[in-house]
Amino acid sequence: MTSNYAFLSNEEFNALRWSSTVSWTQFVPWGGTRGGADPERRRGPTELRLSGREKVESEGGKIPEWTIWNKSDPHHLSPRCDSPTHHPLPAPSPPCSPASPLLRPPSSSASKIDSLRSKVDLLKLPLALSAKSISERKSQLGGAGERRSAGGGGGARTARSPPTRDMDNESQYSGYSYKSSHSRSSRKHRDRRERHRSKSRDSSSRGDKSVTIQTPGEPLLDAESTRGDDRDDNWGETTTVVTGTSEHSISNEDLTRVTKDLEESTPLECKRFIGPALGGCLSFFALITPLAFLILPQVLWRDALKPCGTPCEGLYVSLAFKLLVLLISSWALFLRPPRATLPRFFVFRCLLMVLVFLFVASYWLFYGVRVLEPKEEDYRGIVEYAASLVDALLFIQYLALVLLEVRHLQPAFCLKVVRSTDGASKFYNVGHLSIQRAAVWVLDRYYNDFSVYNPAVVNLPKSILSKKMTGFKVYSLDENTTNNSTGQSRAMIAAAARRRDNSHNEYYYEEAEMERRIRKRKARLVVAVEEAFTHIKRLHEDEAAASPKHPREVMDPREAAQAIFAPMARAMQKYLRTTRQQAFHSMESILTHLQFCITHNMTPKAFLERYLTPGPTMQYQQQSGRGRQWTLVSEDPVISGLRQGLVFSLRRLDFSLVVTVTPLPFLRLGEEFIDPKSHKFVMRLQSETSV
Amino acid sequence: MSFVPGQPVTAVVQRIEIQKLREGENLILGFSIGGGIDQDPGQNPFSEDKSDKGIYVTRITPGGPAEVAGLRIGDKIMQVNGWDMTMVTHDQARKKLTKKREDVVRLLITRKSLEEAVKHSKGSHPRQ
Questions:
Q1: Which residues fall within 8 angstroms of residue A665, CB to CB, at 6 or more apart?
Q2: H helices within A266-309, ranges in order?
Q3: Which one, A31, A425, A472, A659, has the greatest CB density within 10 A?
């Protein structure tokens, strides 16, 4: 039970307390005696009148100016509901069901209160009540009637409790009692259904089901999803509704569309290609060098060269083949389009490029100094020199292969990857990598292994969470507001903890209800698809040749898909909406997929596998050339290698992946030799002899 | 009735004297035995300690000499005519019981209820 209560300020309380008229122990705060204990209280008004301006009548005719009602005492207050002159402060619900506690002194002391001259402020009222002055309220006596406030504060919960008296314009409660054991959401949906029914009763005959078939090309969530909410506009004033899917998903889809457009409209990043371009230049230079070594002497001082016969030709051949191997392996290993741009330098690649550069530069230096200048005549030596360069280049390529490709193949660490929004986690084994390379590796696996992130699936429905926050307002007694916030929050938390909390109950039933709904929709979808698939069949060539008695229209896959899409459209739409997947599948994509399945002779089950389980993120990627932007967040420099206890995270716009590194355990493998002849068995004896 | 290897076994025993009955040329006692150090002690339904390899009475012919003498099913035979039965093979036990020259076998048997009876009586007469 929630209740609001207002505390008096300190001096007021003291004034009341110590005045001779009223002893403060007779003030019963909320939840005290229900009025039955003290017979004195039963008669007449038992409101505490604290304003000293007017005389109070104790016998109950005149209305005191400030009363706080205890909502747990309806029988005491019901005779008063009718009197128009009586109007307490407007509660969030109409005065018949008050929502505030009652400070009730015995009526005998009401006469004693006459002597009070202190005036009480009307500050610090529960939020549900508007902060008007007393005089304004008095002026609203006449027009009180059925006043509905906007249900804030703690009154929101109680606004639901006496509904039948409230919303008389919505006479829908055909037998369903609000206090039934069903969960609130099913109640809501029942109400929704009833309202639908009532409205359709007006328009069309009952039992008529109207199916709206959207023409292909429109997105699946079109006006119908919002139309549903418009239809139920009137009833949603004081109730909290889990709208969840339709409206939010529209806005979310727009948002993602906008961000995607932004991503695609950014100009082509040249940074992506700098590294490979540099490497390409360097390797071209390195490949050209041996040929240059050979050609330059021939060009420059051909006549002075000593003729070099068979050995040179042998060297030519080996040089040629080595260069060919170098070329092919460079193409195979290094000339691949890069898949990721790393935030920092890729250390090994830089190292190798520097090495190659130094190598080639030093060879050129030597060549220039020792061959070009003195115009060396020993051509064979020059050819051997060039051959040695090619050998060295081959060895550098071997080094590159080992460093870039082989070293990280042996697993050394176990990475645990957890998605921050819904806790989906996976474990991977990687070798020795730097953090940035490990991040790229993880992202490669992420697109395949993790189910797609669905922002529409929240952890707890808002209706359950919000209940925890509402219903409790704490007002401090002190005037000095120094420690207000902490004291208040602590008090609120303590009180909330003490209060009996039923939100787990709600959550449980909500979950069960959701599951049931999904299963129901899934069953309908499966049946609809199966039936739809029976409508078409593949036409074989010989069948077409035989002249048909009843000519059948021959369709290509696209038309066939459109033809059988209509009966299953509604079931599919409902199912996608229930599982909150409608943002991922547009009508166009469903038709394309259907066409694909028909073309490849797939069964309905194969067609449905795409929709029944949320697939990996890869399935939903559009082929855009710009790539996905991920941010690597790490405390250590990203070029450092992986080690135990490292944590880094990969952040995207709305979720992030947190990666924890643990080393793989060192395995001590022992050996035990079992002689095959040592396997021997005996029977167990249990004999019984009679003597 | 568990024992610690190397330590003497203590048990409350009852003396039973069975007169062998002559049936034709066989002398029968009217009960069956099971157990022995070459048998599987886990299969013994009567022993408390499933590693007890002693000789147990598994069946008693109703009305036979053993029943008349007071032997009950589930008894563990500790001695037969002075021969120890706690560490014998099944066959040795059988041989000790079926000696053709003896007409009478004097058994020392033990059972759980004996111990309890002694405890009871001890408890009621603490002086003893």
A1: none
A2: 271-300
A3: A659
B97–A691: do the CB atoms touch at under 8 Å? Answer: yes
Contact A686 B43 (CB under 8 A): yes
Q: What predicted TM-score, i.e. pTM, was given to this entire model?
A: 0.53
One domain for residues A316 and A388: yes
In terms of domains, do A403 and A422 share one? no
- Do the beta carbons of residue A90 and residue A149 sit within 8 Å? yes
Can you give the pLDDT at residue A471? Answer: 53
A457 domain residue, yes or no:
yes
CA distance A188 to A517: 14
In a domain, A32, yes or no: no
Pair A187, A510: CB distance under 8 Å? no
Q: Which of B28, B29, B39 sits opposite A687 (nearest CB)?
A: B39
Residues A313 and A379 placed together within one structural domain of the fold: yes
Cα–Cα distance between A356 and A358 in angstroms, integer? 5
Work out the minimum CA distance from A660 to partner chain B, whole angstroms. 52
Indicate if A290 and A389 belong to the same structural domain: yes
What is the dotted CATH code of the domain comprising B22-113?
2.30.42.10
A677 assigned to some structural domain: no
Q: Domain total for chain A?
A: 3
Same domain as A376, residue A337: yes
**Domain span at residue A659?**
412-451+629-663
The terminus-to-terminus CA distance of chain A in angstroms comes to: 82
> ipTM score of the complex?
0.81
Kindly state whether residues A458 and A593 are assigned to the same domain: yes
Q: Is B39 on the interface with A (CB under 8 A)?
A: yes
Q: Is residue B21 within 8 angstroms of chain A, CB to CB?
A: no
pLDDT of res. A462: 63
- Residue B97 distance to chain A (closest CA, Å): 7
**For B58, nearest residue in chain A (alpha carbons):** A688
Distances in Å between the Cα of A537 and the Cα atoms of A541, A601, A665 are: 13, 9, 57
- Chain B partners within 8 Å of A681 (Cβ): none
Average pLDDT on A440-454 reads 89
- Residue A25 confidence (pLDDT): 44
Q: A322 with A438, same domain?
A: no
Going from the C-alpha of A628 to that of each of A103, A264, A334, A424, the distances in angstroms are 63, 10, 23, 20
Task: Say whether pLDDT at A162 is over 80.
Answer: no
Q: Average the pLDDT over A219-229 and give the result.
A: 41
Partners of B39 on chain A (C-beta within 8 Å) are 685-687
Q: Can you tell me the distance from the alpha carbon of B1 to that of A50, in angstroms, rounded to the nearest whole number?
A: 88
The answer to whether the beta carbons of residues B9 and B17 sit under 8 Å apart is: no
Answer yes or no: is A524 within a domain. yes
- A457 and A596 both lie in a single domain: yes
Report which of residues A478 and A322 the model is more confident about: A322
Instruction: For residue A608, give the nearest of A530, A531, A537, A536 by alpha carbon.
Output: A530
The answer to whether residue B94 neighbours chain A at the CB level (below 8 Å) is: yes
- Residues paired with residue B55 on neighbouring β-strands, in sequence order: B77
Using only C-alpha atoms, chain B has a radius of gyration, in whole angstroms, of 15
Domain ranges of chain B: 22-113
Distance CA A663, CA A311 (A): 55
- Return d(Cα B53, Cα B86) in angstroms, integer: 7
The share of chain A scoring above pLDDT 70, in percent, equals 53
Decide if A450 contacts A658 (C-beta within 8 A).
no
